[in-house]
Here is the input.
Amino acid sequence: MTKTWFVTGAARGLGLGVARAALAAGDRLVATSRNPDSLAKAIDGDPERTLFLPLDVTDYEAPRRAVEAAVKRFGRIDILVNNAGYGQIGIFEETSEADIERQFETNVFGLMRMTRAVLPTMRAQKAGHIINFSSIGGRVAFDLCTIYGASKFAVEGFSVNLAKDLESFGINLTVVSPGFFRTDFLDPSSVRLAGDRIADYQPVRRKFEDLYQGMNHRQLGDPGKFGDVIVKMAAAEKPPLHFLVGSDAVGYVREEIAARSSEMEAWAEISAMTDSHDEHA
Ligand SMILES: NC(=O)c1ccc[n+]([C@@H]2O[C@H](COP(=O)([O-])OP(=O)(O)OC[C@H]3O[C@@H](n4cnc5c(N)ncnc54)[C@H](OP(=O)(O)O)[C@@H]3O)[C@@H](O)[C@H]2O)c1
Here is the structure.
């Protein structure tokens, strides 16, 4: 069956990879961007199967308007790809409240807003698949990633709990955690860096800012292959709740699970000391 995909942030990076792969698979595509002109330049799609729409996920009304336009054109939405997001990188103490709010407004509240806008359509269909973009930074801690990581851990928490709300409607949910991919993510056009006000942090800040800037556009992951893998995953009869993309992501999470498990076991006896042994409790 031909599916209708709705992708946020589809004009570049991982969103563009997914948009192109969905069209290549013969599906229909609703591609959205804050700058819709950039969609026409990036996506060479069959006009019969493609709709370009403006969408800033931080605009309270925009998701609902975009969903209405998508349903008017294609009659349904099968897969929502909540890709839009960016990295607020830096030391927590050096990051302003305004920058923290902006990060959560986009990566977390924007994603929830988009999800809320699409759910009535998916509930009526009694089918659908929501694909939320977390990050390897939503599973594992990295230097200078306190705020970005917090936003992506929030996406994880939101997603696994929302999946329970949706079980009875036949709506699948997958939270995707990509490793490091060769997009604009670390480029000045996307990433936002905190200030540099506190001398104590200077060595660590400089070390990791230089490291991340050195990785810009040289990361391991290929966004085109990423798109193909997402299309393959979405075609599964039972898609995964968690999906790691990239061998680096698998490696980081494997180590994290082992470390967490061994710490849990080391403390398990003390953890259990709070149990009440009163049988009437
Ligand atoms: N690349 C990686 O290594 C990596 C790793 C883990 C997770 N991720 C996640 O993957 C997603 C895509 O990142 P990317 O690597 O493709 O980075 P990117 O090349 O910088 O693309 C970011 C995308 O997000 C969109 N966006 C940002 N703010 C938006 C807003 N307020 N409303 C609508 N769209 C907005 C941008 O749209 P415009 O074109 O309108 O600017 C752009 O399409 C993000 O959620 C990111 O956190 C990336």
In short: The pocket of NAP is lined by residues 8-9, 11-15, 33-35, 38, 55-58, 83-86, 106, 110, 133, 135-136, 178, 180-181, 183-185, 190, 219 (CB under 6 Å). The chain has a mean pLDDT of 96. The chain has one domain: 4-248. DSSP finds eight helices and nine strands in the chain.
